[in-house]
Design brief:
This protein is mainly α. It is 66% helix and 0% strand.
């Protein structure tokens, strides 16, 4: 496996871990998640892919350039669009 593939797999793993952590916190606070987790992960991964493509990144290593990662993984202030996309995918659309 080449280095970029390993990096992208690690990024996807971090995204899945971040989503799972947020879902568990929501459930721990008495919230309910009506959608299957696989659907949630797929929706977030699709949003990350779209975020990378929206910035013109395609091919090996493109995921690491997705602006949406700033919102999901933290550490960097995300732009309002990415913040809204992530909120829509998790809070607004799939978690009640």
């Amino acid at each position: 496996m080449d280095d970029m593939a390993e990096v992208e797999i690690r990024v996807l793993r971090e995204v899945i871990d971040a989503v799972e952590e947020r879902l568990r916190a929501h459930e721990g606070g008495g919230g309910y998640v009506p959608a299957p987790r696989a659907q949630l992960y797929a929706a977030v991964i699709y949003a990350v892919l779209s975020s990378a493509r929206g910035c013109g990144y395609y091919g090996a290593g493109s995921l690491v350039h997705a602006p949406l990662l700033d919102e999901i993984l933290g550490g960097v202030e995300a732009n309002p669009w990415d913040t809204a996309v992530y909120a829509l995918v998790l809070d607004g659309a799939l978690i009640y």
